[in-house]
Amino acid sequence: MIVCESLPDLRQALVPLAKPLGLVPTMGYLHDGHLSLVRRARQECASVAASIFVNPSQFGPQEDLAAYPRDLPRDLAMLEADGVDLVWTPSPEAVYPPGYQTWVTVERVSAGLEGERRPGHFRGVATIVTKLFHAFQPQKAYFGHKDAQQAAVIRRLTADLDFPTEIVVCPTVREPDGLAMSSRNTYLDPGERRAATVLYRALEAARRAYAVGERDADRLRQILQAVLAQEPRAEVQYVSAADPDTLQELHGPVERALLSLAVFIGKTRLIDNVAVGDFVIARSEATKQSPE
Ligand code: AMP
Asked: Which of 65, 78, 215, 241 has the most other CB atoms within 10 Å of its CB?
């Protein structure tokens, strides 16, 4: 496995790699969720590359950039064990040198949910993903359903900026008790860790209600709220039943919805989601709405 820090070294290391190339972008502190993306890429691509970069521009001023967990030697060992060919570990200065002033903004699909509660987050995500796609020129790129709005933003960006990259969205990998794997789970103390299972229990309750015929989006949100309210350590930031293409909040009867939530457990902000109905995260909006 080749590990590069500078962009010129990365470009040189990419030349001999067989195509198709699959890219797995990460912020490191890897777990089985990340590795599921690597394994899917390994199955589908002749070469697999990963990036490890805690992207400062997607963190707000009050967020956990400095505290974000990091363990590069462990991450590299895990990627090597899963057959990754190339890893890029740039410094923040290499990605955003002095004088940097170019940003990518995806508009409507970034506006609600995470975008509303984390102003600037998706501008940071869209910018780093654009830079990664330019650097690696991958035929395929792998993202997790865990960050469903992010996947929708990246699909939109890829279509709008004509990247010849297929976006593959992989299922959320969970702990045995249902908690979605996340690097941020390491912030939880044992009591908080137990409380954190309420996110999955809430989503499961709404999913079961849908499965037995509940189609009212407002009622599905109420079910999410009701289960979360049973956990005193959970401070709900939002619950949502949204259109999976536009991420607009839905009301009344629905056939398909992305049910998602953001909840503080102590100081740790956790997000999770499930899809109800038959759909793929964010088909092109183009058939539904013309560009502004
Ligand atoms: P991060 O390092 O948190 O930026 O995540 C890197 C990629 O891994 C993103 O595409 C995430 O959606 C994905 N990911 C994170 N956690 C999970 C999980 N539990 N299951 C599947 N994919 C995940």
From this structure: 241
Q: How far apart are CA 278 and CA 256, in angstroms?
A: 6
Q: Output the DSSP codes for 34-62.
A: HHHHHHHHHHH-SEEEEEE---GGGS-TT
Residue nearest to atom 14 of ligand 1 (CA): 144
Mutate to test the pocket of ligand 1, among 122, 147, 158, 183 (most ligand atoms within 8 A of CB): 147
**Residue among 225, 268, 51, 119 nearest 217 (CA):** 225
User: What's the rounded Cα separation, in Å, for the pair 166 and 130?
Assistant: 14
How far, in Å, CA of 146 to CA of 273, rounded? 7
Task: Tell me if residue 142 falls in helix, strand or coil.
Answer: strand
Q: And the tokens for 197?
A: 């299972």
Helices (H), 82-216: 92-95, 108-111, 113-117, 121-136, 148-160, 190-195, 198-211
> Quick one: which atom of ligand 1 is closest to the CA of 147?
12
Query: What's the pLDDT tens digit per position in 79-135?
Result: 999 999 999 999 999 999 999 999 999 999 999 999 999 999 999 999 999 999 999
Q: Residue 38 and residue 77: Cα distance in Å, rounded?
A: 13
The residue whose two tokens read 């960050």 is 147
- Amino acid identity, position 152: A
pLDDT tens for each residue of 127-178: 999 999 999 999 999 999 999 999 999 999 999 999 999 999 999 999 999 9
DSSP state letter for 277: S
Supply φ then ψ for residue 60, to 5 degrees.
-75, 165
CB atoms within 10 A of CB 165: 22
